[in-house]
Amino acid sequence: MRKIEMRESYEKQGFTKPVFEYRPDWPYVSIGFGDEQDYFIENLSLLIASGMGITNALSSINISIKGKRLKKITKKIEEMVNDGMPLWKAFETTNFLSERVISLIRSGEEAGRLPEHLNLVTVQQHKEKVFNSRLKSALLYPGIVLILAFILAVGSSWIILPKLVSIFETSNGTLPITTKILLWVGKFLSVYGIIVVPMIIISTILVLFFVFVFKKTKFIGDYFLFSIPGIRALIQGVELARFGYVFGVLLQAGFQVDEALESVKKGTSYAQYRKFYNHLQESITNGDTFKNAFSTYKKPERFLPIPIQQLILSSEKSGRLSETFIKIGVIFEEKSEAMSRDLSTVLEPIILVVVGVVVGFVVLAIIGPIYGLSNQI
Questions:
Q1: Fewer Cβ neighbours under 10 Å: the N or C end of the chain?
Q2: Domains of the chain by range and CATH?
Q3: What is the pLDDT of residues 130-176, one digit of tens each?
């Protein structure tokens, strides 16, 4: 572990001690922690809220952690904080928490409201965990069906089709186009299957990673998801539930509107919503109202339904923004929960149609020629 003093003064970040930037010999990653990560944040929030200092709280939590890898990471975080590094910077350096969580911790630490923000993170993570669990349950059945269909399709094309090729080629009858396509696939897989099938699987995984996970290209996946009506509604519900709750709680804690929007903007996972929040923040900073901010953005109803916009405008006039946004968060949390439960019901007929089309194609391609051969015999 090397320690390099940063040229930037700590005073620029609102502190009085020098900042040190740690460059770890190997990157720590939060993958695989799951419940331990939630346990860490929950206990850190409780200990700091009780009046315990950050370093003492980190030391106490480190004692109770059993996993060697997590214990090593929390120990490094404790050392960084002891050397004057802000807590959020220590989390960022070790990649222990997500960017969304770090942005909330940073805003709370810099504003002197770290306990409140840690509690906000705890509640938000619990909400997201419950929603993700319901979403996974809804997608489990369709996912299993699609995976099994893919395995059966590849297996039959790779193993069964090459054996049928010789039978159909010996017949003098005219084969339908579906059978010709299937025979070509069978011949191709019999020669190149050992190379092509693994390449297709690896390529699919890489494409999914770069489209939906990799930060610099994730906007492509976001654009694709926003183009699907049902998925777009679900994303909107989840995002507005988070936006309403986080923004409302920050306003209740005394944050200015533009400061709260900064935390919301850094916390979102979607580039399109980040752009929308950035526009709202710039408009509010320039002295505009929410009404002006909405009217100067192209199709704001894609991100905030028109009734919700009207609700925000009326609450802005009455001075009840924080209560209204928390209520919006509750409303959309309930809606997103209902949509996640209904998702499997919506997907089932689509999957059945897709599987039915594939099965029908295979049946026409194989049964038709076999029936013709039986007549010849």
A1: C
A2: 2-97 (no CATH), 127-377 (1.20.81.30)
A3: 777 777 777 777 778 778 877 777 777 677 766 666 666 666 656 67
